[in-house]
């Protein structure tokens, strides 16, 4: 396996883990802890155990994503310039994907954080987690578009 293959594998596994946790929080955890007595204590226990995974996972996603951009993305973007019909610009799609992913990671981080400034996000977690789910779906769609662009030889 090349370093690019390892980076891709780490990126995908961490993305699945983080995205899956957002889906579970949205449909199961948040509704349960906000509607049950003693839910705040349960939420705090989950937050304390899960926060390190979200923070480390976010860092890994950013680092591996930027590595893939430098190794594969820049070459793909350069290759597009040589084609008669290059399709959608790589950098545009990557930029949109990156911004949407940052939004989803911010919401995930806010949900496991302790900052009083972000307490409103935690109080309205159902809405914010729903937004994060939509952002994640958009990131997956854009990732598929990027994978379908012509590859350099």
Short description:
The protein is built from five helices and no strands. It has one domain (3-147).
Q: How large a portion of the residues is in β-strands, by DSSP E?
A: under 5%
Spatial separation of the terminal alpha carbons:
19 Å
Determine the oligomeric state from the structure: single chain
Shape: elongated
The helix content, as a percent range, equals over 70%
Stretches where pLDDT falls below 50 for ≥5 residues? none
Largest sheet: none
Q: In total, how many beta strands?
A: 0
Please give the radius of gyration in angstroms: 18 Å
Mean pLDDT: 92
Order of helices and strands: HHHHH
Structural class: mainly alpha
DSSP summary: helix tally: 5
Task: Furnish the topology, listing elements before pairings.
Layout: H1 3-35, H2 39-80, H3 90-112, H4 119-123, H5 125-147
Overall description:
The chain has 153 residues and is an all-alpha fold. The protein has one domain. Helices cover 82% and strands 0% of the residues. The chain is built from five helices and no strands. Helix 3 packs antiparallel against helix 5.
Structure keywords:
5 helices, 153 residues, mainly alpha
């Amino acid at each position: 396996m090349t370093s690019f293959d390892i980076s891709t594998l780490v990126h995908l596994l961490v993305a699945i883990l983080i995205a899956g946790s957002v889906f579970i929080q949205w449909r199961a955890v948040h509704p349960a802890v906000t509607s049950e007595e003693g839910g705040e204590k349960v939420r705090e226990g989950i937050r304390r155990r899960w926060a390190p995974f979200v923070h480390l996972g976010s860092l890994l996603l950013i680092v591996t994503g930027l590595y893939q951009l430098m190794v594969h993305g820049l070459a793909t973007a350069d290759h597009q310039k040589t084609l008669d019909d290059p399709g959608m610009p790589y950098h545009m799609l990557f930029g949109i994907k990156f911004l949407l992913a940052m939004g989803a990671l911010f919401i995930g981080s806010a949900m496991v954080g302790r900052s009083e400034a972000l307490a409103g996000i935690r109080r309205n977690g159902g809405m914010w987690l729903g937004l994060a789910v939509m952002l994640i779906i958009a990131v997956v769609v854009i990732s598929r578009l990027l994978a379908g662009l012509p590859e350099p030889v």
